[in-house]
Design brief:
The protein has one helix and eight strands.
Length: 137
């Protein structure tokens, strides 16, 4: 799998260039939820904020079986490396191999976005070179 880990490093190097990255793209990951002190108090979530090296493109239409299917969203090309910048409201600077989980919330320029689809490249193995993510606009 050396080929894919080398590609992951290449993609991360390219997407970390501030001239190429578009916008501020992060993941807000819920780590834990603490119940309120009383039943009428809302629960308090604990978050981890992960900074992504990514490029965003607007996606608006696709063809399926020869028929135009309108689909709006933002397509993200995300590097296989990421940096945890905040955890439990405390600053942190830890570089990690990116793994996207189904409860992750993407923040595009600070706006929360719902995930429509996630594609890992390559689809198998223990190293993701790049992630292709579509989020709602």
């Amino acid at each position: 799998m050396r080929l894919y880990s080398d590609r992951r490093d290449d993609v991360a190097e390219i997407l970390s260039d501030p001239d190429i990255c578009t916008g501020d793209i992060k993941i807000r990951r819920t780590l834990d939820v603490t119940a309120g002190a009383n039943p009428w108090n809302p629960p308090t979530p604990t978050y981890q904020i992960i900074q992504l090296d990514a490029v965003a493109f607007s996606g608006s239409a696709k063809f399926s079986a020869g028929t135009l299917v309108t689909e709006r969203g933002v397509d993200l090309t995300v590097a296989g490396w990421a940096t945890i910048v905040e955890e439990n409201s405390l600053p942190r600077n830890t570089r990690i191999p990116l793994d996207i989980i189904d409860t992750d919330e993407f923040l595009v320029d600070g706006d929360p976005r719902r995930v429509i689809s996630v594609e890992r490249v390559p689809e198998a193995g223990n190293v993701a070179s790049v992630w292709l993510v579509r989020v709602a606009d």
